[in-house]
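Hey,
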Amino acid sequence: MGKKVVVTGVPGVGKTTVINGAMERLAAEGIAYQAVNFGTFMFDVARKENLVSNRDEMRKLGKDVQKRLQQAAASGIAAMSGDANIIIDTHSSVKTPTGFLAGLPEWVLRELMPDMVVLVETDPDQILMRRLGDASRVRDMEGARAIAEHQEFNRAVSAAYAMYTGCTIKIVRNENFLLERGIDDLVGVLR
């Protein structure tokens, strides 16, 4: 049975960059992982239903619509896992206009049953600067304090995920100019 590892982090922390670097290193060692983006699964369904035109609009959809999209994504990812090692690139929580929404609620966890949740984190000021420099996304503007609050909430909900599934939690730091260290940490837990 393959490993199912959920890798999370607030927008702009660089989780996908860390995932890609870790996958390259593992592939060189002969260890295969498939990366799956949970939000892409959700976005594909939402776009087919003409609910959104870009990914950043999804967090503004109604709670019930987001729940339905989460369920569809979880079912699709669970169906493809089998014996493969899978990294699920997602968010522990999503900041919506009405508050935080759990990224992996019970019905998603029941489908996925991850072996581990990895939180990619860094200092809120670094995340803020990365967001400001990323013209490819349409993000709501928020300061370092709000980013810190989001990271703290992610830790709390990840602890709940671990209690429900029995998975472990690992925190990987993705500091500016220390990307290789973050990749090393992720590779270490994925081996």
